[in-house]
Amino acid sequence: MLQYTSTPVQEFHHPTIEAAGVRVIIKREDLNHPFISGNKWWKLKYNLAEAKRLNKKILLTFGGAYSNHIYATSAAAHECNFESIGIIRGEEVEPINPTLRFAREQGMKLHFVSREEYRKKNDIVFIQGLREKFGDFYLIPEGGTNEFALKGCAEFGESLLSLSFDHLYLPVGTGGTIAGIIAGLGNACEIVGVSVLKGDFLKKEVDQLLNIYSQGKKNTSSIYGNWSILTSYHHGGYAKVTPELMGFIREMKQQHNLPLDPVYTGKLMWAVMEDVKKGSFRRGSTILVVHTGGLQGATTYQNLYEEIST
Prior knowledge:
The chain is of the alpha/beta class. It is built from 13 helices and ten strands. It folds into two domains: about 10-35 and about 145-310, Rossmann fold, CATH 3.40.50; about 40-145, Rossmann fold. The longest helix has 15 residues, at about 40-55. This is Pyridoxal-phosphate dependent enzyme. One of its GO terms (molecular function) is D-cysteine desulfhydrase activity.
């Protein structure tokens, strides 16, 4: 199925980290595939296998105009010889942005719907209408989070057991990646999710996903008890940024050769550095940061931000 490239663990050096007496290492999953990078690879792996098992020829999924998921799914469909359809939130604007242009180049058919229609993405009647229009597709939900995504992310979590660390940090959007990693790691370490959205609803979402993954298993609370979600590092909400965050991302790239995106991994690394400053870790601790990819839209986002800010 999908081709995977083994990824390095990068030692991250910074005066703040050295002063705190801790070690920060970064699992560079952004390097696991040129186009289906980071957690998207793990989320799609078993969805593609299931689509093959069901003998489906078409993948259909949902996303916004700059969606990492749309970008990755189009590339995965192309690599694995599926047709693909992207239901895109909002009106079509020409020329289309680099994310959607790439998806089209991969063969994805883009179908734009109003924001009101898009809210029906989980409605049975709406989905049936899409089947009547596009045929017998395999449905991958927005963001890719379902039981097959959990299986893939749990597999990734298990692979991390070969590393030595005390805390694991990763960004959280839909909750699928962290739920899978929690399931894969069990109680091996403290797992901290950094929410990129406003609000504190994600813990409930992750609990529900863990229940889905754990059906038939006993004592799940003791297995999956050592995790939390930070909700104060969203910088205004999903896809929102601050001048401080954009400056931080530039610093990470220019001074530390660490590429980050403004939506997910920039906020993740900001949270790690802030927690180090606060003295949240005992001296001698090792913090593993999972780089979940999503760099495809970083340059475009940077340009848009600079246009708005000037």
